[in-house]
Design brief:
Elements lengths: L2 H11 L5 E2 L3 H5 L9 H6 L5 E5 L5 H9 L4 E6 L2 H14 L4 E5 L5 H4 L5 E7 L17 H10 E11 L2 H14 L2 E6 L10 H4 L4 H8 L5 E6 L2
Parallel strand pairs: 1-4, 2-3, 2-5, 3-4, 5-6
Antiparallel strand pairs: 6-8, 7-8
Helix pairs in contact: 1-5
Length: about 220
């Protein structure tokens, strides 16, 4: 994407009612007025809030919002030029139960209050295979503790990935720490029992993986 096109998208994001772009300083100083008030101030309803972390173009966030109008969805990504597409689609289609935040995922405990979130989706994250990158894996112990802080006690986390490594690594962490694995499958399109929300929504890249017969894995779990 050219820099001119990126700039156009950044500027357009500023006009979207469904996009929040706080500065890092604003977040770290707990100055984000929406923290603890996402239901009343942003969505203006009391429906459950679901996050998608590393939402990319926002395809999954918007797909879930279409499918579940009685839930609120927030896509989080640092690359605003990417989720511009999802934000624009939601506006064009009049989907009001979806929003996007441009920020780093590691800051989520500054964005949301304790027990404010009902579900989290982690879709096709970078597996960060190199050992020195383990701190960036979205299912490592540090991130799980962040999720626990903002989620309701029985909150559900979904991991959908094409990476067998990430799938196995996550199951190892979950079993090792005694978290509850609700459902796990290393090839959801060739096995029965996967939730419809996992198989009925596919991103652009996921469709490419499937065309190459690459298995898509899925884990649903709860943090103890």
């Amino acid at each position: 994407m050219g820099s001119k096109n990126k700039l156009k998208r950044f500027n357009e994001n500023k006009t979207f009612q469904n996009v929040v772009e706080p500065t890092r300083e604003e977040v770290l100083q707990n100055a984000l007025h929406l923290k603890g008030k996402w239901n009343e101030s942003f969505f203006k309803n009391a429906n459950p809030i679901v996050l998608e972390l590393g939402c990319g173009k926002g395809e999954y966030t918007v797909g879930l919002a279409r499918k579940y109008p009685n839930k609120n969805f927030i896509g989080i990504d640092i690359k605003g030029a990417r989720f511009w597409r999802g934000a624009k689609t939601a506006i064009e289609e009049g989907i009001h139960n979806v929003g996007f935040i441009r920020t780093q995922i590691e800051l989520i405990t500054f964005l949301f209050d304790d027990n404010e979130i009902d579900e989290i989706w982690i879709t096709f994250p970078d597996p960060q295979i190199k050992y020195k990158r383990t701190k960036h894996r979205l299912t490592n112990q540090d991130f799980l503790q962040r999720y626990k802080k903002i989620m309701k006690p029985e909150g559900i986390i979904h991991l959908k990935t094409d990476s067998e490594f990430m799938h196995g690594y996550t199951l190892g962490i979950l079993h090792g720490e005694g978290h509850k694995v609700v459902y796990a499958n290393h090839d959801i399109y060739h096995n029965e029992g996967a939730p419809e929300s996992v198989t009925s929504i596919q991103t652009f890249y996921e469709k490419q993986y499937l065309e190459k017969n690459k298995p898509i894995t899925y884990v649903q779990f709860k943090i103890k």
